[in-house]
């Protein structure tokens, strides 16, 4: 594959002062799976990724309102004097060049913007924001910023003024999609026009209606692999432009061995697992660069988990999931598990940290004898946290 055909990739995130993420650093693979005890901060990591995307999209007010948060809720409550969130995102662009986006987000400023930013490509600064001024690669001096914006200045700058590398970095970060709040109740709701689903799966019906026929057929074929009785789905329009989602299923006539006329059922009467899988599969057909799912096994029958893992491992997007299920890990090849499974835990100070699970010596030894999921079951996570905290104490 030539460098021109490479997909951009987010390699690492670093955050400081975002909730429990203090001096937090984590590597990201094509597929990354977070495990750990309840309350360790797995969901916080997903929220932080979503936060970075919203900075690049410039939708902080809308995002905070959707989650019923205030900007100060994003801060670590143990660092009372710090009012800014610092971050760094390391990427590989579609031309193979490394890029880094660094910034500081001021939670006290009413504008909710990044007070400082730099983007470097192959160690060359192509964007800088400081003290109310900015410069692009084509400019030699910092210029006053003549407009207001939220998040990153890149959310406001027109694509036409950006270099191809800067535009690629911008679009990759904008393409992070979080569905960590997926809710069957929201997925069942009727909706009007929408070009995507919400963080909880709302507007699913309108989103599916907007997809081209080729993507619709790809989703239907995948759904049939999960549910042999699944025939297809269709979205019908009702009054005032509202869309309702319908699922059609076929059943065998026992006396004839033939399928009956498909039975159509509106989404509000469909089981949770089917709707959840439909939403996940639909997202793999989007142009998003990165998909985030919390507790990916929720509502999914155990016999379908392997198929779901295979879909996510082969998705065109990067994928980050959390799980409490050893079944998810059991369907990962050992080499993938070593790279992709991250153990999330809290330090004595309550800060969230991440470490590759299968590089921990006691865990690595077990992987030579057991499958990844079996190692997970055989490991006392509470004792492992204590072990890691002892190792990190200053001598």
How would you portray this structure in words?
The protein is α+β, with helices and mostly antiparallel strands and 395 residues long. It has two domains: 278 residues, Rossmann fold; 110 residues, no CATH class. 30% of the residues lie in helices and 26% in strands. It contains 13 helices and 19 strands. Strands 2-1-4-5-6-7-8-9 form an eight-stranded antiparallel β-sheet, with helices on one face. A six-stranded mixed β-sheet has the order 10-16-17-3-18-19. A three-stranded antiparallel β-sheet has the order 11-12-15, covered by helices on one side. Strand 5 and strand 6 form a beta hairpin. Helix 1 crosses helix 3 and helix 6 crosses helix 7. The radius of gyration is 23 Å and the shape is globular. The chain starts with 8 loop residues before the first strand and ends with a helix. The mean pLDDT is 91.
Quick structural summary:
The protein is an alpha+beta fold and 395 residues long. The protein is built from 13 helices and 19 strands. The strands form 4 sheets. It has an 8-stranded antiparallel beta sheet, covered by helices on one side. A 6-stranded mixed beta sheet has the order 10-16-17-3-18-19.
User: On the 0-100 scale, what is the average pLDDT?
Assistant: 91
> C-alpha Rg, in Å?
23 Å
Total helical elements: 13
- Beta strand count: 19
Strand content is 25-35%
Oligomer: single chain
Q: And the CATH topology of the largest domain? A: Rossmann fold
- Annotated CATH homologous superfamily of the largest domain: P-loop containing nucleotide triphosphate hydrolases
Provide the CATH top-level class of the largest domain.
Answer: Alpha Beta
Indicate the overall shape: globular
What about the largest sheet?
8 strands, antiparallel
The CATH architecture of the largest domain can be given as 3-Layer(aba) Sandwich
Question: How far apart are the termini?
Answer: 48 Å
Can you give the helix content as a percent range?
A: 25-40%
Structural class: alpha+beta
Instruction: Order the strands across the largest sheet as they lie in space.
Output: 2-1-4-5-6-7-8-9
Low-pLDDT windows of residues: none
Total domain units: 2
